[in-house]
Amino acid sequence: MKKRQLGIVALLIASLTAHAAEPLQLFNFHFSTFTFADSLAQHAADSTTSFGKQKIKEVTITTVRRRNTEAAAVQMQKSAPVVMSNVSAQEIQRAQDNHAGEVIRRVPGVSLIEDKFVMVRGLSQRYNNVWINGGAVPSSEADSRAFSFDMIPGSQIDNLVIVKSPTPEYPADFSGGFIQVNTKEIPTRNTADFSLGGNWNSGSAFREFIATNATHRNIGTQEIDLSNVVLDNDWHTKTRRPIGDLKLSASMARRWNFDGNKLGLIGTANYTNEYRAYRNMTNNLFGLYDTSKDQSNYLRRSTDNQYNHNTRLGAMLNLTWLHRSGDHKLELKNMVNHLTNRRYTWRSGFDAQSNQSESAEYYFRRRTIYNGQLAGKHTLADDLIDWSIGYAYADRYLPDRRRYTVNDALETGTIALSNGNDISREFTALNEHIVSAQANDTHTFHFGNQFEPTLKYGLYGEYRTRKYTTREFIYSWNPSDNTLPEDFRRIDMTELLSADRFLGIDGLYLIEQHNMRNNYRGNNALGAAFATLSLPLGRLGIYGGVRYEYNSMELISNTRDDQLSEKSARYTTNDIFPSLSTTFKIDDRNQMRLSYGRSINRPEFREVSPSVYYDFDLVSNVQGNTDLTACHIDNIDLRYEFYPSRGEAISLAAFNKHFNSPIEWTYTVSGGTDLIYSYKNAQSAHSLGIELDIRKDLSFIGLKHFSLSFNGALIHSRVAFPEGTIDENRPMQGQSPYLVNMGLFYKNTARRLNVGLLYNRIGKRIIGVGRSEGTTGSDDIARVPDSYEMPRDVIDLTFSKSFGDHWEVKANVRDLLGQSVTYQQFAEVRTADGSGKTVEQITKLYKPGRNIGVTVRCIF
């Protein structure tokens, strides 16, 4: 009897081990149920046979399938029916990435702009689509179609997936990548931890840091009587010396078992307080090259000193219920992040009229994003049903943004106030809401034991609203009837604007600039249905289907500045998007993928609105284009994948994309001296490239405990314009010609030690598209050069060491080389002697500083 029982136990363990080794499926449940019937012990005895006085009963084991380890990430990529890449929580912890932006740049073909916006395969951020926990999220920016990934702390992420080829079950509005951020869910055990960390930036810590006294009170965006409102009129600045940055985080994980049913809770909270200073920042604007003097023509030549005080407060609360049978799962996920940026910028130099000029901006921005979902997954016979209901909210407030400019236009060499238009105060509010719902069913057909195709179909609905309001005021005075001193124009501006004796109806007073056309509101309704069929034909897997999407966007804006005069414009698309993905398994470790899919890129509210916003960093106005149209993209992917062992992967991919009307970020010259940034459709474009991704343990060359992570991409793109036009064919805006990410890691489990060396470089890319001015066929065509972000090398060092079961120390050095961030343009000029040359002109240059961080974590 004992031998029979031992045999049954051994068979149970063997079966569990075999099942655990199966590849993880991307589109399956995150949990699994293993059932072992009486027939499990058939070799020992019949299921109805009693062993002594006991009968073998059915055993059901319910567990949670983990996706947050490197091995799970590799298996997910291997078994997915589409081209995708991912990053696990284990990799995030090893690289010590602070937020989702730093996390995602580890993915092949991905780069980061401004430390928060993501580019996939060299395409600008507008070609991405972002979901959190299976639900849509709003854009966090008022003036661009982009999601700011710095809003999601790395500690909240369970895994991050980027789908690179279109598939019917996901929204069609992406071409670069469909980015899914999945936060943590049901824990494996009860834990709690607390982390305390500091960071020291070489440009900010222990150095003079200028801050403002302004409280930036929001007076609202509705018409009010300013005589009844008390504004903060303190324009003074103060100096401090920050010791460094503070980082706090805490998390708690709990699980309960109720008669076999499992309930899990994960809660996290984090806080960051940081200082960043960019000193002696070059900020130039160039006109047409002066060929007679063979020198650059500066329209603006200035130096900026910018001081940023940033805070981030975030929290997450996830609840997961798992039925004891493993057939039903319910999840409630909530995540909220609140970010503030208090910034002071001082600018000095020369303006377009060669006047000596000084200006300042007092800036405070508050951003909040909330994302919540209620989701369920159910197994019913041969059907796998999943559904979700989501709500997301985002806002951006700029209460009381202040600016002033003084120059020597009145008297050469004497800095003074020229007119009241050079002092302004602006109040801006942006609110966006998204409600979404989806339901999907995956049905498996059984044709014998060898052929089991699956049919997946579903519905998706989304409704989004946005409201943007702004009010602007300038200062003025009565030239003939005021109590201001005779030389008030020459008084220091911070004193002039702060002292009560200079303010009032008989001194300096506020006048509202009525710009109702800058306000807008809108709504967007999206309805979609899809169907896919998965055919397992031996070594060949076929996954194809179609998606139908109806999208209707309404933008309501004003036609007059002085009064409410709303006019509605609708932008509607009605499309069918086919896609087909094939996977051929050469053997268990080698496979090939080939896929095609059609996708779309639609304009956003801001991009089609006539609203104008002055960007102090760009020293330019930003406005929309009401004539923008949607862009359709055809995507082809070919990828070879090699999986040497569990947790290792090597892939080589090629892709080709064709755009019929790409939307690009362009700028023009207005009035001969000012730039206006906007959006424009080109005729067509194509982008093709290759990607190499390596995740490999280096023990095979004698480097025990070492592993290598490398991903690189070479990309070629070209925008085409109709023949006979004065525009020049060029690379796509935002397109990087190459991307390199590399990491060398040392992990010693016995010593509980981890060390990492990471490297990143992004090729020269167009930030702003210039344009040609002149007459077709003439020799006097003037070219406004494209603006490029130049390459820079970024090296990070990370270290972590655990002491016992309760303490862990992490340290890192980020941007070790501290190379300058450079924006540059290349002017093609013809000199007086008839020869040609390329002149390099630096438009912006600054040093972001090195960062040294230390964190201590206590685990309870």
Distance between the termini: 44 Å
- Structural class from helices and strands? mainly beta
Q: Based on CA inertia axes, which overall geometry fits?
A: globular
Major beta-sheet overview: 22 strands, antiparallel, barrel
Description:
The protein is mainly beta and 860 residues long. Helix content is 6%, strand content 57%. The chain has a 22-stranded antiparallel beta barrel. It has a 5-stranded mixed sheet with strand order 5-10-11-8-9. A hairpin with a 2-residue loop joins strand 2 and strand 3.
Topology:
Layout: H1 2-20, E1 31-36, E2 50-51, E3 54-55, E4 59-64, H2 70-79, E5 84-88, H3 89-95, H4 100-104, E6 110-113, E7 117-120, E8 128-132, E9 135-136, E10 157-163, E11 177-183, E12 191-201, E13 209-212, E14 237-240, E15 245-258, E16 261-286, E17 298-322, E18 328-350, E19 356-380, E20 383-411, E21 414-416, E22 423-444, E23 454-476, H5 493-498, E24 509-513, E25 520-537, E26 540-558, E27 566-585, E28 590-601, H6 605-608, E29 612-615, E30 620-623, E31 631-642, E32 649-659, E33 663-670, E34 674-681, E35 684-697, E36 706-720, E37 738-748, E38 753-762, E39 765-768, E40 771-773, E41 782-784, E42 787-789, E43 793-803, E44 807-814, E45 821-830, E46 836-846, E47 851-859
Parallel strand pairs: 8-11, 30-34
Antiparallel strand pairs: 1-4, 2-3, 5-10, 6-7, 8-9, 10-11, 12-15, 12-47, 13-14, 15-16, 16-17, 16-46, 17-18, 18-19, 19-20, 20-21, 20-22, 22-23, 23-24, 23-25, 25-26, 26-27, 27-28, 28-31, 29-30, 31-32, 32-35, 33-34, 35-36, 36-37, 37-38, 38-43, 39-42, 40-41, 42-45, 43-44, 44-47, 45-46
